[in-house]
Write a structure and sequence with these properties.
With about 120 residues, this protein is an alpha+beta fold. The chain is about 40% helix and about 20% strand. It is built from 4 helices and 4 strands.
């Protein structure tokens, strides 16, 4: 199956992700200071999930426009819809063209390999 691949990274992500530079990398000292201060206000596991999600998004960005990556927070309306649709129950997951990776299957290598197969590489 060749064509565009849609990757939805689902989890409970800090709001700071959506108000700073992409992939949780801060580009200016002001953003670094603001983002770092904001991230310290969240539980360690939430920041950990955000950094893993950002790393996966960055890793998949090398495929360019062939792969559309979207981060969706569980506490958003879209997040609630995705949770209901795929039975995620709030746990972190990655949905690739309708296929769900969660729990032990939430391995970046396995996800990237699946994406490559979908792209026909």
């Amino acid at each position: 199956m060749r064509g565009k691949v849609k990757v939805t990274i689902y989890g409970l992500f800090p709001t700071v992700y959506f108000t700073t530079a992409p992939c949780c990398h801060f580009t200016t000292p002001e953003e670094e200071r603001y983002g770092g201060e904001q991230l310290r206000e969240y539980p360690w596991w939430m920041v950990h999930d955000l950094r893993q999600a950002a790393a996966l998004a960055e890793r998949l960005s090398k495929y360019g426009r062939s792969v559309k990556v979207e981060l969706v927070s569980a506490d958003s309306l879209k997040g609630v819809w995705i949770s209901l649709r795929y039975g995620l129950k709030g746990e972190p997951a990655v949905v690739v063209n309708g296929w769900v990776f969660k729990g032990p299957a939430l391995d970046p290598d396995a996800i990237e390999s699946f994406v490559r197969r979908l792209l026909g590489d």
